[in-house]
Amino acid sequence: MDSLIIEGGTRLKGTIRINGSKNAALPIMAAALLADGPSVIHDVPDLSDITHQNGLLTELGARVQRQKDGGLRIEVVDESNSLARYDLVRKMRASICVLGPLLAKRRHARVSMPGGCAIGDRPVDIHLRGLKALGATVELDGGDIVIDAPRLRGAEIFLGGNFGSTVLGTDNVMCAAALAEGTTVIESAACEPEVVDLADYLNAMGAKITGQGTPRIVIEGVKELHGCAHRIIPDRIEAGTFMVAAAICSGEVTLENVRLDHLLAVTDKLRGIGVTVEKEGGGCTVAALGRLRATTITTQPHPGFPTDLQAQFMALLALADGNSIITEKIFPDRFLHVAELSRMGARVHREGATVIIEGEQRLIGAPVMASDLRASAALVLAGMAARGTTTVNRVYHIDRGYERIEERLNALGAKIRRVNQKDPDQ
Ligand code: EPZ
Fold it and tell me: What is the pTM of this model?
């Protein structure tokens, strides 16, 4: 079990390239199951979640190969197995994004229900509601979703839920509708850039999708889809994480390969607390040279403030002047990082889905436990700003979403080393 040992107090300076988006790559890799023929997906990051998805697609009859130019070649060679096993799905809930492609292409699928995770319940009721509206029958059997649709017919579908739209739910319904007969209209669709990237890939395969990036997506069903080449959009959450890294270490960092138009809510908040964000070529330079101001943040569906950057901003605001308030509207229990930040001297008080952060002058290094991908990243950021040494345990959580994080941060001046040590609880 690896841990990261972080010597705090360094200022970050230099340039870092942002990788392709994990959350765009996962559904796009699943959508390759829809194609007759190979696809080559470029800028797919080298992460454990991607490796996991490779394994799942291979079990579902795809051949997945990393090409010399780094592109990921995916070609379906056998459609006889449409079972996504519990043992695979429980390790990565995003595996649910194979449901729509399998239903559309093979008219049958058996996919394990994802179950809960560290950031809360991960229901899929809206996914299933949307697929049923297209004519699918859904049974639950032994924890698996068993779904069939001899025919898929276009429909008007509302995909809103109590927490707003659903990203992977929109992806699943869009993939199924792409091969349905007739027109599908998705109302209250997710507007995330990763949904737009999937729609763009589907259109390059021969689908007819318009409205992606708005709450109303229209899909004209077609008879078949072919493979194609596609480049993944930059990872806005990785970019936001490294922007916070620059700010929390009072540094000056240039990020390359950033779509600032995907990060408007984030750069708005950074500028509001005294961080400078200047557009530069295909990226930006982020600097924080003075004290930071407190602010209030409420997470929302895109284009609102992303829940995937909530933990990182909590670490940052722990060092701001004054009291900040963060309200989590997407995953109300996504606060496992609160107790760990408190161990480092942060004064954070949770009241349900809201956390009050009393800005402190400093954080103190301590051993802390990673729990989920983004909370773990927040602990690394806090450790870089803290006085003394911080040990972040169970960093396999971080490796799911950040490629070689310690190497890339050390190249900017951080002092982080990875050690393999026995899990403190074993
Ligand atoms: C995607 O998850 C992302 N994952 C998550 O990023 C991200 O936090 C989330 O969207 C919200 O932006 C990937 O793209 C692989 P949702 P997804 O369905 O699609 C509720 C990370 O750190 N809901 O948009 O699974 C749900 O409980 C990960 O990279 C239902 O009630 O999230 C939540 O409260 C973590 N019923 C809200 O909607 C459903 O059928 C949004 O969830 C589906 C969702």
Answer: 0.97
Determine the atom of ligand 1 nearest the C-alpha atom of 122. Answer: 27
Which residue, by CA, sits nearest to atom 6 of ligand 1? 308
45, 19 in Cβ contact below 8 A? yes
Burial 346-364 (b: 16+ CB within 10 A, else e): bebeeeebbbebebbeebb
A 10 A CB-CB count for 105 gives 23
348-378: pLDDT as tens digits: 999 999 999 999 879 999 999 988 899 999 9
For the chain, domains (ranges, CATH) are: 2-19+234-420 (3.65.10.10), 22-231 (3.65.10.10)
In sequence order, the 6+-apart residues with CB closer than 8 A to the CB of 74 are 29, 32, 38, 39, 40, 41, 57, 62, 63, 64, 227
Query: Is any ligand 1 atom within 6 A of the Cβ of residue 373?
Result: yes
> How far apart are the CA of 23 and the centre of ligand 1, in A?
10
Instruction: Please tell me the distance between residue 193's alpha carbon and the centre of ligand 1 in angstroms.
Output: 14
Q: What string of H, E and C letters represents the secondary structure of 149-200?
A: CCCCECCEEECCECCECCHHHHHHHHHHHHCCECEEEEECCCCCHHHHHHHH
Predicted confidence (pLDDT) at residue 423 exceeds the cutoff of 60: no
pLDDT exceeds cutoff 80 at 98: yes
* Nearest alpha-carbon partner for 174 in 232, 101, 224, 113: 101
Q: How far apart are CA 330 and CA 171, in angstroms?
A: 18
Q: Is 303 in the pocket of ligand 1 (CB under 6 A)?
A: no
Q: Is 26 in the pocket of ligand 1 (CB under 6 A)?
A: yes
pLDDT tens digits along 395-404: 999 999 999 9
Whether residue 423 contacts residue 23, with contact meaning beta carbons closer than 8 Å, is answered with no
Distance CA 38, CA 45 (A): 19
CA distance 309 to 286: 16
Q: Would you call the peptide bond into 332 cis, given omega within 30 degrees of 0 as the criterion?
A: no
Q: Which atom in ligand 1 lies closest to the alpha carbon of residue 192?
A: 12
For the segment 253-279, what is each residue's pLDDT rounded down to a tens digit? 999 999 999 999 999 999 999 999 999
Q: Which residues pair with 85 in a beta bridge?
A: none
Q: Compute the mean pLDDT over every residue in the chain, rounded to the nearest whole number.
A: 96
Q: What is the 3-state secondary structure (H, E, C) of 381-397?
A: HHHHHCECEEEEECCHH
Residue 116 neighbours by CB distance under 10 Å: 12
